[in-house]
Amino acid sequence: MNESEHDLNRLLRSAAKAPKETPDGPSPALEQRILAQWRSGAEAVEEWFTHLPLYRRALVVACGLTLVALIVYFPDITGDSADEVDLVTTPLDMTSLP
Amino acid sequence: MNVLVREAAKAAQAAEVLDVAECVKRVRRGEEDAARSLLNHLFPLVLSVVRGHRPRRMSEDDLTQTIFVKVFTKLEQYSGAVPLEHWVSRIAVNTCLNALQAEKIRPELRWADLTEEEEHVVQTLDTTAGELEPGYSLGSRDLTDKLLDCLKPNDRLLVSLLHMEGRSVEEVKQITGWNISMIKVRAFRARKRMRKHMETLMKENTP
Questions:
Q1: CATH number of domain containing B71
Q2: Which residues, other chains included, contact B20 with Cβ-Cβ below 8 Å and sequence gap of 6+?
Q3: Which residue, B75, B102, B129, sits at the end of a domain?
Q4: Do B134 and A17 touch (CB under 8 A)?
Q5: pLDDT digits (tens, 9 = 90+) for B149-204
Q6: pLDDT at B64
């Protein structure tokens, strides 16, 4: 076992021995809060972090779709439309008619 | 005596008085007295999980409330196949893990961040080879908490369960639902990261 591993083990063993005072019961205020929320029939407080993985996936999918849309419609966005070329060349074509 | 053993003994004593199965049935019927009894019975267990795995910025009471309301509202799903305490532990650990995952900042630990007590612990670790005196245990716990803050939530959870709470790999598997080899590999890597942070601290301490 190397020295740092030994030190870490000593630290963790010492930390595990630290006294942890746990009160026997919740404070009246906390007890009331919990029971009131339960009585109200509310679902557990689903903090925003509960849905965080879903939000991340949604963001990735949205970015992917945006990228695909950009690639597909890039020519339209840059304005290199064939119609515009046609429009410009139309008078020339007309003059070359017999 | 180990804190967990004490908690288990307390819970066992309380269980002698409280008929848990009956109490669960009454809570499902919506009886408030039963809910209060169950809350008091499970409180030390939930609080010990919360204290071990709470994100720094979240209040102990808020997290405890979230866990208990989850327990009560999901009590219909409890089949009774495992002891209620195991089922509640799992809910508590998963809720704490979700809260930890939301806390994105993993601070880099520096010598200047340590309290005087924690500095003594690092210096003692650096200069001695034997076990630390009992007087260092509080400083060791605070230092360990700071080192754990530098880890990813899953790694932090594992080190806490295995080393701070003294749970076996099998118990960790039951609580987290992860397989044994994943637990071992992840615990190994987490310890390696903790060692790196400790070495950095020790180097900073060396003149």
A1: 1.10.1740.10
A2: B38, B41, B84
A3: B102
A4: yes
A5: 888 888 988 998 898 888 899 989 988 888 999 999 999 999 999 999 988 888 88
A6: 93
Give per-residue pLDDT as tens, B123-161.
898 888 888 888 888 999 999 988 988 888 889 889 988
- Pick from B12, B21, B53, B70: which is nearest to B145 by CA? B53
**From residue B161, how far is each of B6, B77, B106 by CA, in Å?**
16, 25, 20
**What is the per-residue pLDDT for B1?**
41
Query: Is pTM, for the whole model, over 0.95?
Result: no
Instruction: Name the residue with tokens 């009774």.
Output: B80
Average pLDDT, chain B: 85
Q: Are residue B20 and residue B47 in the same domain, yes or no? A: yes
Q: Which residues does chain B have within 8 Å of residue A33's beta carbon, measured at their own beta carbons?
A: 61, 65
pLDDT, residue A93, reads 58
Nearest to B195 among A5, A18, A53 (CB): A5
Which token pair is B206? 């060396």
Q: B126: nearest CA in chain A? A: A7
Domain shared by B72 and B22, yes or no? yes
Question: Are residue B197 and residue B150 in the same domain, yes or no?
Answer: yes
Domain count, chain B: 2
**Does A21 touch chain B if contact means CB atoms closer than 8 Å?**
no
Task: Mark whether B121 and B87 lie in a shared domain.
Answer: no
Residues B47 and B87 occupy one common structural domain: yes
Enclosing domain of residue B150: 111-205
Phi, psi (degrees; rounded to nearest 5) at A14:
-65, -40
Mutation target vs B (from A37, A38, A46, A52; most B CBs, 10 A cutoff):
A38
Contact B40 A25 (CB under 8 A): yes
Name the residue facing B137 among A4, A15, A52 (closest C-beta): A15
Same domain, B116 and B97: no
Is residue A95 scored above 50 in pLDDT? yes
Q: Does the CA dihedral B119-B122-B127-B132 come out positive or negative?
A: positive
CB contact under 8 A, B132 and A14: yes
